[in-house]
């Protein structure tokens, strides 16, 4: 008789989300103790050849004395997960639940193999089961990577290694080797890397024929003229100023006129059209509007320059240089009055000047091509190719945000994410005309997502949150999926997490985060999240549409590993005293501060 045929207990009560099981003897419990732990599975008869597979949620024992001995009984609270039909196929959910007295069995190796077996549909081995490392949890690769994924876990739980290992498996990296060195595959992964951790995980030897595309503050080409209205205004305009409405109005006017000036072939110009315009010329236009004085002599009523020239067309005069105007006067010979915006934009003009001279923003405000020329409308294709690896033919693009000034991190994320979405949208529409689907799907990975797509409605993160939420809500239709990674899931936008179909939760120690993750997971399986604070490093609860049933897995280390290891403080403290160069640190510090100030 096999282990799975040995009855160990019976059903006491049954409800939609809970089955209570009783084991009557200590001998029976001890014989199967290894399989009777929280998070392990039981097989419960349904009255015919089918069985309900349930996960143990809680267990307790009680005893009472009998004739020089102690009698033990054990009660197990379980949650039903699915049905093993005819002992051959596991299906999620169950239309019938076992009634009291039905037999309960331990789940043996053969049953586990059957439940977690690979197949045509479940083709991606995400990681071994924590309770049995000989069995890989197989998930539906298309359902996992083609839908949005959330990866959460407290600092030190192994989150970065988990993300790196999953993506390495997806693109064919194993033990520092490229499995697809002879024939490159069509994977496209874009990682927003806030701490410069992930480049090391995808940097292989020259002989491996794997090109990593790293875009940082020095190599990223992200010209301002690709920004939409919201992004431009977030960068250049203070929304909390009393006259911000006028600032937005004059800025929009200047941008539209300047876009038309530099792109005469486009007849229907819009504020959001991604074409070149000169931000320096826009700044001059606004400063001239701020200085403007209107001549009031007969037949004038136009802006009047210091040399008495009347400005009949602002777009012809105001872009080229900052002008001096005649002074306002009430005398009949020199009659002139301040223009409608004279002095209105003093602070706006000052902020524009400061922003445009900030050398830290050169990757946005003055990106230069290899030939030394500025990027213009004709370079849009080259700019777009960099984001999804087509300039270097790379499967993985790491956008290193560690050197991006905090003030523009949200705009950077917003712009890149929006451009990738818009490209996927238009490419998909082209394919749809031929009754085909997008054949270059992209996954965008948002590391430390709480830093730029928060739940709170903070103006500084409005643009990035809007762009990522748009991908969350609409991206899948156009071959664009998300992986949201965070140590503080309770602080990430609800809209984004609500769109995630698969969850990987490593250890979470914060009670708010535990409660939030439990709330996100379907009620019929959320009991598995009770183990979140007790998971070991690298262990994770996985739940979602891509897997037949929730499970606890043990993620294997990636090779190479990301640069996310913690400092071994106590080991360093036990080393001999180290002298360091304070001068070098201060030099770097002062350089950064100076660049910000100039």
Which keywords apply here?
598 residues; alpha/beta; Elongation Factor Tu (Ef-tu), domain 3; Rossmann fold; nine-stranded mixed β-sheet; six-stranded antiparallel β-barrel; 22 strands
Explained architecture:
With 598 residues, the chain is α/β, with parallel strands linked by helices. It has three domains: 3-115, Elongation Factor Tu (Ef-tu), domain 3; 136-223 and 367-566, Rossmann fold; 226-356, no CATH class. It is built from 17 helices and 22 strands. It has helices at residues 26-31, 109-115, 141-145, 159-171, 229-236, 244-262, 279-291, 314-317, 346-356, 362-365, 380-387, 406-433, 462-474, 494-498, 511-520, 569-573, 582-597, and strands spanning 7-14, 19-23, 41-45, 51-66, 69-85, 89-92, 103-106, 124-129, 132-139, 149-152, 173-174, 177-178, 189-193, 212-215, 293-295, 336-338, 396-400, 442-446, 480-486, 502-505, 539-544, 551-554. Strands 14-17-13-18-19-10-20-21-22 form a nine-stranded mixed beta sheet, with helices on both faces. Strands 1-2-5-4-3-7 form a six-stranded antiparallel β-barrel. A hairpin with a 4-residue loop joins strand 1 and strand 2.
């Amino acid at each position: 008789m096999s282990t799975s045929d040995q009855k160990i207990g019976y059903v006491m009560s049954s409800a939609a989300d809970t089955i209570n099981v009783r084991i009557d003897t200590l001998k029976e419990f001890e014989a199967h103790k290894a399989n009777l732990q929280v998070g392990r599975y039981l097989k419960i008869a349904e009255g015919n050849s089918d069985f309900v597979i349930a996960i143990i949620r809680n267990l307790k024992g009680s005893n009472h004395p009998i004739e020089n001995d102690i009698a033990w009984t054990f009660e197990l609270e379980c949650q039903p997960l699915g049905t093993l039909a005819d002992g051959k196929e596991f299906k999620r959910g169950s239309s019938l639940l076992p009634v009291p007295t039905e037999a309960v069995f331990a789940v043996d190796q053969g049953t586990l193999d059957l439940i977690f077996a690979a197949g045509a549909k479940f083709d991606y081995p995400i990681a071994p089961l924590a309770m049995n490392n000989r069995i890989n949890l197989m998930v539906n690769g298309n359902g996992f990577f083609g839908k949005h994924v959330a990866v959460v876990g407290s600092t030190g739980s192994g989150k970065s290694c988990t993300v790196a290992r999953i993506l390495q498996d997806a693109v064919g990296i194993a033990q520092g080797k490229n499995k697809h060195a002879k024939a490159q595959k069509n994977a496209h992964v874009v990682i927003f890397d806030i701490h410069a951790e992930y480049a090391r995980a995808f940097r292989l030897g020259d002989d491996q024929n794997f090109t990593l595309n790293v875009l940082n503050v020095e190599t990223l080409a992200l010209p301002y003229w690709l920004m939409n209205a919201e992004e431009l205004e977030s960068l250049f305009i203070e929304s909390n100023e009393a006259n911000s409405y006028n600032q937005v109005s004059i800025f929009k006017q200047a941008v539209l006129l300047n876009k038309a000036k530099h792109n005469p072939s486009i007849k229907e110009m819009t504020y959001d059209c991604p074409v070149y315009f000169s931000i320096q010329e826009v700044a001059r236009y606004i400063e001239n509007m701020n200085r403007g004085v209107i001549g009031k002599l007969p037949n004038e009523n136009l802006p009047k320059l210091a040399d008495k020239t009347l400005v009949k067309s602002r777009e012809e005069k105001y872009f080229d240089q900052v002008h001096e105007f005649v002074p306002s006067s009430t005398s009949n010979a020199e009659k002139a009055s301040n223009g409608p915006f004279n002095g209105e934009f003093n602070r706006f003009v000052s902020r524009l000047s400061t922003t445009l001279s900030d050398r830290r923003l050169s990757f946005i405000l003055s990106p230069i091509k290899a030939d030394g020329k500025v990027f213009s409308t004709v370079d849009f294709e080259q700019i777009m190719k960099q984001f999804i690896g087509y300039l270097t033919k790379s499967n993985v693009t790491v956008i290193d945000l560690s050197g991006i000034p905090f003030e523009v991190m949200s705009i950077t994320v917003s712009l890149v994410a929006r451009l990738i979405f818009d490209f996927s949208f238009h490419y998909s529409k082209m394919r749809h005309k031929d009754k085909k689907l997008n054949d270059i799907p992209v996954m965008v990975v948002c590391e430390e997502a709480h830093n730029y797509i928060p739940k709170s409605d903070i103006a500084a993160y409005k643009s990035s949150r809007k762009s990522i939420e748009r991908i969350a809500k609409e991206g899948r239709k156009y071959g664009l999926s998300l992986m949201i990674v965070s140590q503080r899931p309770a602080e990430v936008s609800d809209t984004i997490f609500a769109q995630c179909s698969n969850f990987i939760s490593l250890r979470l120690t914060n009670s708010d985060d535990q409660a939030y993750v439990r709330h996100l997971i379907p009620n019929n399986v959320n009991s598995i999240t009770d183990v979140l604070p007790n998971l070991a490093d690298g262990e994770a609860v996985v739940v979602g549409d891509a897997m037949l049933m929730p499970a606890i897995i043990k993620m294997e280390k990636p090779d190479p590993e990301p640069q996310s290891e913690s400092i071994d403080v106590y080991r360093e403290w036990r080393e001999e005293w180290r002298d360091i160069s304070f001068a070098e640190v201060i030099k770097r510090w002062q350089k950064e501060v100076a660049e910000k100030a100039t």
